[in-house]
Amino acid sequence: MVHPGPRKDTWRRDARIAAEFQPDGEFYEKNKGKDPVQFSRGHQVRLLDPCWSSAADKDQALVESQIGAEDTFHYTNAAPQVQTYNDIDWGNLEDYLLDKAQSTDKRLTIFTGPIFRENDPPYTNVSGL
């Protein structure tokens, strides 16, 4: 792991995916959007998880780590969340699993994404989705 430095917290659309298939700041930020429901953004992939490098050069390793951190701030990596649950319960679970993996020299494969029920209403601005 290579710490990327100060957190920038600049969320944006992912340029690799058409904007029409992504939510934007209005979906998440209070008093910005017209949607009656405003969500808190939650990282699906944690900020520091992709902050690593195998580069021998320290400057190159830092650049690679910063790119990994910045990629976590695409709206495609955000999921609606309940802030207090994420900060305490979910964050504690993530920390526990990472600690156990490191202290026992185990490897983990983490699948991430929102969990939907069959009766959840669809939310999209794209017809047919």
Strand order of the largest sheet: 1-2
**Fraction of residues in helix:** 25-40%
* Global Rg: 17 Å
Helix/strand order = HEHEH
Note the overall shape. globular
Question: How many beta-strand runs?
Answer: 2
- Terminal residue distance: 38 Å
Biggest beta sheet attributes:
2 strands, antiparallel
Given the structure, what is the number of helices?
Answer: 3
Strand content: 5-15%
Helix/strand class: mainly alpha
* Mean of all residue-level pLDDT scores: 81
Q: Could you list the spans in which at least 5 consecutive residues all have pLDDT below 50?
A: none
Give a description of the structure:
The chain has 129 residues and is mostly helical. The protein is built from three helices and two strands, in the order αβαβα. The protein has a domain at 19-82. It has a two-stranded antiparallel ribbon with strand order 1-2. It is globular.
Summarize, please.
With 129 residues, this protein is mainly alpha-helical. It has a domain at 19-82.
